[in-house]
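Minutes, methods subgroup
Present: GH (chair), OT, SY

1. OT presented the first of two proteins processed in the latest run. Sequence and structure tokens recorded below as shown on screen.
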Amino acid sequence: MGLTAQILREDLDAVAARDARVSEELARIGYPQPRIRERGYKTMLRTIVGQQVSVAAAASMWAKLEGELGENFTTSCLLKRDFDTLRACGLSRQKQGYARSLCELVEAGAVDFDALPDDDEEAIAELTQIKGIGRWSAEIYLMFAEGRRDIWPAGDLAVQEGVKRLLDLTERPKEKECRELGEGWSPQRSSLALFTWHYYANPAL
């Protein structure tokens, strides 16, 4: 289902009821827009395709990949293609390694996007088995594709900057401090993360 507009409103209202600063800023800038992605390995593959390139370049590569593999391609479709075929779609050697890691883990049943662990940390651990997928990418997937409501991507610079502004800090908190500061917003931290991004044009996935 994802973090719908209704969920965002409910969760941010719940935080605002106990945090005057969030209440003040929510009244000033309003609610963020939902960002909902499809559940499954394709969303994670799109993340891999889009790493370290522009939005336009990522869209072009994805279109070429779908053109080669077919719109309803499976993991085995990608694994059957050779290096040069995937290179022609724009995938570098590194991206191909990450994409193959994803598809191989799915095929082996080591990562099951239809049955990730309910525990968020266990789900993050399962997703970060995939080469090229770090904690941030796993957290973003769980927020936008699964709609998990208490994910806190404390390593994200925009989240850190948002926390700095919300709490009137003199410096942007580093990841460890940001994670600690976010504990008071549990169990609605996913909506708070979206609220901090609401300050910026910072699309994810």
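2. SY then presented the second protein from the same run.
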Amino acid sequence: MTTFRPETVPGQAPPPDAVHPRDSRSEAPTSVSRLNETINGFVQRWGSVWVEGEVTSWNLRGGAVYGRLKDLGTDATLSFRLWSSVRARMSDAIRVGDRVVACVKADYYVKGGDFTFAVSQMRHAGLGDQLERLERLRAQLRREGLFDPSRKKPIPFLPQCIGLVTGERSDAEKDVHRNAELRWPQVRFRTVHAAVQGDRCVPETLAALKKLDADPEVDVIIIARGGGDPQALLGFSDERLLRAVAATLTPVVSAIGHENDHPLLDDVADLRASTPTDAAKRVVPDVGEQRALVGQLRARLTMRLTTRVGHDMAQLEQLRSRPVLREPESLLSGRTHDLFLLAARGREVVDRRMDVQARRVAELRATLRALSPGATLARGYAIAHTGDGRILRDAGQAPAGTPLTVTLERGSLAATSDGEVPESAPADGGTKL
């Protein structure tokens, strides 16, 4: 609840030159200056009061702060001004969304007719309900991974068609169109207008986003709005809009307010631009810069190719200057004699090896012949074996009447054993059959 404790109670007599209703007629109207002076005279007699509220705007300009204070229970607001000298004495760091207690005095600017409150003291009293809700939502979305860079979609290098969600006939729309067309005249826009503040902001922005995301020709979507106090930008921190942006298939660029404005949409969008103008510059490449870049790349490529070809030609010329390549036949002629000697040596080694092996074969043949049974038979010996093929080595193996086969050098004879011959056998050792 806002508490007022006036230091002086208004009600003193008005200044002598104050505007009185009887002095103001259609035939003799009073001047604007006189009216403003009268208002200022009344305002100057008001005392200072202590007021409690939530900071909804905090703009630093030239050392002074210009902001707005919102009632904690209603939508009532007031403008305040805080000079740099007062700000230097403050021990608390104040930001948008903080709940504060301030000592204010009404101030009326005669020249411009503006009414504001000058702050002489201000101290921090906690977080405002609005900021606390936003911080809880920010923490929840961060836990769910909606702020992770890994889920953000890349912005196409040269979008052929840009979807734009912004207010109708707004400066943000003009800034985006003008700067994008200056950078790339052939760029096309698909613009869907939506309310950028108030109760219609979220549903109309959601409808526009859904329409553009379903359009296959749209390569990137820009949500743009001019600057404003944080209260006016609340729609761009709505949870429904944030989840819809995270679910789109088309990359989304957030261009809300100015550099100091930071709704939650900036964290969920695939790219955050500080202003609508910055969005156009970051989404659309500059045709002049791209042409210059292409020229630089072509020059570098030409230089690289020229250097490489020149280097290879120098290496080739160096190789050609070597004697072996200048007179290739000299390499063969120097090796002809070596080849002849190697061939002669090869023939000699082969002939020697053939002679050695021929003698070895002859020796083996003679040894084989000496051990051959045929050679033994050729010397007049015979081999006797029984009918079942057993060779007789003992006379006792062939009793009398045993049929025998006698093998000679040429042919075989059939015989019958007469039994063992006594030891007084013929001197030639023959067996009597």
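Chair's summary of item 2: The first helix runs from residue 32 to 44.
Next meeting: continue with the remaining queue.
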